[in-house]
Amino acid sequence: MSKLVPGQRLHQRCVCCCWNKLCNFNYCRIFIFLVVTSIAFIFFLAVYTCKPMGHSCFGLTDGSPVALSYYDAFLMGKVFKHNFSEAVLNKERRLNLEGEDVLIYLHIQKTGGATFGRHLVHNLDVDFPCECKAHIKKCVCVTRNSRRWLFSRHATGWMCGLHADWTELTDCVDKWFKRNDVKSRKHRVYHYITFLRDPVKRFLSEWQHVQRGATWKAARLHCNGRDATMEEVPFCFTGVDWSGVPFDEFMSCKHNLAFNRMTRMMANLSKVNCYNRTGLTDDVVNEILLKSAKENLEACAFFGLVEEQQKTQFLFEKTMGLKFIDNFRQKIKTHVSRLEITEEMTKKVVEKNILDIELYQYAKDLFLQRVAYMERKLGYTVDEYFNHIRDADDAGDDDTEEVDVDEYGDEDDTDDDIDDDGVDIYPGKNTTAGGEIPNSSTVRLNSSR
Ligand SMILES: *[C@@H]1O[C@H](CO)[C@@H](O)[C@H](O)[C@H]1NC(C)=O
Ligand SMILES: *[C@@H]1O[C@H](CO)[C@@H](O)[C@H](O)[C@H]1NC(C)=O
Ligand SMILES: *[C@@H]1O[C@H](CO)[C@@H](O)[C@H](O)[C@H]1NC(C)=O
Ligand SMILES: *[C@@H]1O[C@H](CO)[C@@H](O)[C@H](O)[C@H]1NC(C)=O
Ligand SMILES: *[C@@H]1O[C@H](CO)[C@@H](O)[C@H](O)[C@H]1NC(C)=O
């Protein structure tokens, strides 16, 4: 190994970037600095100013060095600005829960939805809070006139199927209320609320959850009047579950419902013939699903983002005219944040969840624009709200009680319970009768899928 004196090394490095006469250390540094900053500047300028045309920016052809897509923007943590109408931005409403209004919670797996679900039953400042008992997952959420005001796993159980999606809920909720609501209420207005999460984190979180034994195999996947069949959606595993599944195996199962789960669960699946896509190309199906999911998300009364707990709380309170007792907390650590994820894994996940990434990018822009709209309308910011305004409103009851919603559930913010298939929250199907977990095939046969 030959030792170089500093001057020599500099000289050698300089040759590649400067012409000989200017080959002096400082020129060289300035030159490199200028090149790097201008490239970075152009890149960021492009992200901020360009609107996507199809999948790539400026409609540039492949191979262009600055062709930016939704996915590049996603990976950079940026969003494209959409032009939303006022009606889409402003969802403010006065709920009358003692009247016709009912909250319907559409809970997508691994979106941090369990925590929000617990906030709704334990932490909402309403005249008729839910009555919850220790160790029982379901609470009783009724108004003074015995009207049910919340439909969710924590309030009613999975009455429309385990983690029922938009298609299942819109088909089932009204029928269920007609049978189970007090007779005095003849008509109801359903306000759908849901949560979304960074699709890569969500997907990895689902993989981790499946590794720990979750299957959601009791999900009915009901659509157009029947449950999906085994042929349409086969299980990815044989035997009881898919515990310990390695990443590559999880990625290689074509029927894995984890792929683009958020888009599928928000879309009207009737539009693509449910789970039988015979005669439809993937491109056509994807386009329809994404469009439908965006429309349904826009039409929801509210949606939150797990990455934005404070803004979510602000927007929910101001949109619904309801208030939480205790403030939401942003959890720092999740199972996923402790995982070692390589760049290659992320790339694979992105490729397989393209619809969810488009949906999420769209949703994030909509969410942030809604927050900004609400701030303008109210004349104060989210920070100001939490720093003085909200507390001032509470001046009467100064010893604000700490409500720890996670005390009522598991430790991890984004973790649904492993026993999601349990009978006490999902009375429709007897999947865990006698404490025995049946084989996947037995469940499918029993549920005539
Ligand atoms: C956004 O949409 C509105 C009407 O929907 C239109 O008047 C306005 O020009 C649009 N703005 C941009 C920047 O496209
Ligand atoms: C899907 O539907 C087609 C007819 O539309 C039918 O021939 C085919 O058997 C169905 N596939 C499955 C898996 O059910
Ligand atoms: C469960 O599946 C295994 C093989 O997959 C089979 O041998 C066993 O009999 C099944 N048990 C029940 C209860 O069906
Ligand atoms: C879902 O789409 C189908 C087919 O376009 C339509 O008939 C149905 O009304 C939609 N469902 C809802 C709840 O809007
Ligand atoms: C569920 O299983 C238990 C125990 O086998 C049985 O007593 C109960 O009647 C079953 N419930 C339904 C709805 O099938």
Automatic annotation (TrEMBL):
Main location: membrane
Location of region: Disordered: 393-449
Family: Belongs to the sulfotransferase 6 family.
Enzyme class: transferase
Entry keyword set: Glycoprotein, Membrane, Signal-anchor, Transferase, Transmembrane, Transmembrane helix
Compartments it resides in: Membrane
Catalytic activity entry: alpha-D-glucosaminyl-[heparan sulfate](n) + 3'-phosphoadenylyl sulfate = 6-sulfo-alpha-D-glucosaminyl-[heparan sulfate](n) + adenosine 3',5'-bisphosphate + H(+)
Amino acid composition bias (Polar residues), ranges on this chain: 429-449
Enzyme Commission identifier(s): 2.8.2.-
Organism (species): Candidula unifasciata
TM region positions: 30-48
The protein, known as: Heparan-sulfate 6-O-sulfotransferase
Compositionally biased intervals (Acidic residues): 394-423
